[in-house]
Design brief:
It is built from ten helices and ten strands. By secondary structure, it is an alpha+beta fold. The chain has three domains: 112 residues, Acyl-CoA dehydrogenase/oxidase, N-terminal domain (Butyryl-Coa Dehydrogenase, subunit A, domain 1); 113 residues, Butyryl-CoA Dehydrogenase, subunit A, domain 2; 146 residues, Butyryl-CoA Dehydrogenase, subunit A, domain 3. The strands form two sheets. Strands 1, 2, 3, 4, 5, 6, 7 and 8 form an eight-stranded mixed β-sheet that branches. The chain is globular. It starts with 6 loop residues before the first helix and ends with a helix.
C-alpha cells in the first residue's frame, strides 16, 4: 500500500490550507455571529477550482479524483465546517448525481456551471415524515403531457437559500403508469425560481448560522419532462448512491474540525500556566491531546481509504459507513476534550473551541445518523 499523496493531491492540500489560513479562518467567527453568507469566499473557492476537482474538464472540472476532493473538504473544514458542508452538498452529492446519472443536455446545462463554482446545488431528500426512513417520501410527481407536476414539502435543505443556488434535486413518488405496477420513487431537477416552488422559513440553528438551510415547498410546481433525472424507478437508489460519497465527505469534515480542535488546544495548553507550569505538563491534559491526535489519524486514514476505493471503482459502502460513523462520533469527543482543556474559557464565545463544540454534533446527524450507519454496517456483516 502506498500512503503517499500524489503531487496533485499534495498541491490541493497546500492550496486549500493556505486559503483557509489566509482567508477563511480569520473570518469564521464573525460570519457565524452575523449569519452572513460568505459569497466573496465562495467566489474565491470557485476561482481555485474547488467545486469541480473530481470531474472531467469536459464538464467544468479539473480532472482530479475523490481523494483530492476530500483532502480539500478536510482542509476547508479546519477553518469553517459550513464551507466544508457546502462542498459536500454541491460537489459530492448534487454535482455527482448529475455527473453519474444526468443526460448530456442536463450536464451541459446544470453540471458545468456547478463544477466551475458559478452556481451551487441543493439536495432534497428529507421530509417532515421522512428522515432516517427516507423511503417514506410523500412528495408526489404526476405526469401531465410534457410536464411533471410536483406537490410536497422538503425540510432541512442546505444551500437552497443562497442567491447562487441554481436548483434542488428531489425525490418524489410517482403513480403507477400501468395496471399492476407499484408506485415508484424518482428523481427530479427543480430549478430555483420555478413557479410553484417556494422557500419556507430559514431555520434557526444552534450552529452553521452562515449556511443557508430552508424548507422547500412545492405547490403544483410544473417542470418539463426533460428535468427527470436518471432511470425510471431508480431515483431513491440514485440518491443513496451519492450519499455514500456524502458520508465520506462528512468524515472529512469531522477530521478537519478535529484538527482545528487539536491545534487550538495544543497552543492553549502550552501557554496556559497553572501551579507554576504550562498545563501541557500535566498528564490529565497531555493524555487528552494524545487521544485527540490518535483519533484524527485513524479517522483520516478511514476516509482516505473509502475515497481511494471510490476512485478505483471498488465497493465502498461499508468503508464509507465506517468512516462517517467513527469520524463523527470521535469529533464530538475531541471537541468536548478541547472544551475541557480550555476550562471556563471554553464556555466563552470569544474562544474558537466554543464554536467547534457547537459544530461537532450535527456531523452525527447529516448524511445518515450514527444509528443508520450502524444499521448499514450490521446489515453488511450479515
Amino acid at each position: 500500500m502506498n500512503f503517499h499523496l500524489t503531487d496533485e493531491q499534495q498541491m490541493i492540500r497546500n492550496m486549500t490550507r493556505k486559503f483557509v489560513d489566509d482567508v477563511v479562518a480569520p473570518r469564521a467567527e464573525e460570519l457565524e455571529k452575523k449569519g452572513e453568507y460568505p459569497y466573496d469566499i465562495m467566489r474565491q473557492m470557485a476561482d481555485l477550482g474547488m467545486m469541480g476537482i473530481p470531474f472531467s474538464q469536459e464538464y467544468g472540472g479539473s480532472g482530479g479524483d475523490w481523494v483530492g476532493m476530500h483532502i480539500c473538504i478536510e482542509e476547508m473544514s479546519r477553518g469553517d465546517t459550513t464551507l466544508g458542508g457546502l462542498l459536500d452538498v454541491t460537489t459530492s452529492v448534487v454535482a455527482q448525481e448529475l455527473y453519474v446519472f444526468g443526460t448530456e443536455a442536463q450536464q451541459r446545462k446544470w453540471l458545468i456551471p456547478m463544477a466551475r463554482g458559478k452556481t451551487i446545488g441543493a439536495f432534497g431528500l428529507t421530509e417532515p415524515g421522512a428522515g432516517s426512513d427516507a423511503g417514506a417520501t410523500k412528495t408526489s410527481a404526476v405526469r401531465d403531457g410534457n410536464s411533471w407536476i410536483i406537490n410536497g414539502t422538503k425540510q432541512f435543505i442546505t444551500n437552497i437559500g443562497l442567491d447562487n443556488a441554481s436548483l434542488v434535486i428531489i425525490t418524489a413518488r410517482t403513480k403507477a403508469q400501468k395496471p399492476g405496477e407499484k408506485e415508484q420513487i424518482n428523481t427530479f431537477i427543480v430549478p430555483k425560481g420555478t413557479p410553484g416552488f417556494t422557500l419556507g422559513k430559514r431555520y434557526d440553528k444552534m450552529a452553521w448560522q452562515h449556511s443557508a438551510t430552508h424548507e422547500c415547498i412545492f405547490e403544483d410546481c410544473r417542470i418539463p419532462v426533460s428535468n427527470f433525472l436518471g432511470k425510471e424507478g431508480r431515483g431513491f437508489a440514485q440518491h443513496l448512491a451519492v450519499l455514500e460519497t456524502g458520508r465520506i465527505s462528512v468524515a472529512a469534515i469531522a477530521v478537519g474540525l478535529m484538527q482545528a480542535c487539536l491545534e487550538t488546544s495544543l497552543k492553549y495548553a502550552k501557554e496556559r500556566v497553572q501551579f507554576n507550569q504550562p498545563i501541557i505538563n500535566f498528564q490529565a491534559i497531555s493524555f487528552k491531546l494524545a487521544d485527540m491526535a490518535m483519533a484524527i489519524e485513524l479517522a483520516r486514514n478511514m476516509y482516505l481509504k473509502a475515497a481511494w476505493l471510490k476512485d478505483n471503482r471498488l465497493p465502498h459502502t461499508l468503508e464509507a459507513a465506517y468512516a462517517k460513523l467513527y469520524a463523527s462520533e470521535m469529533c464530538e469527543k475531541v471537541a468536548s476534550d478541547a472544551y475541557q482543556i480550555h476550562g471556563g474559557y471554553g464556555f466563552m464565545n470569544e474562544y474558537a473551541v466554543s464554536r467547534y463544540y457547537r459544530h461537532a454534533k450535527i456531523l452525527q446527524i447529516v448524511e445518515g445518523t450514527s444509528e443508520i450507519q450502524r444499521l448499514v454496517i450490521s446489515r453488511n456483516l450479515r
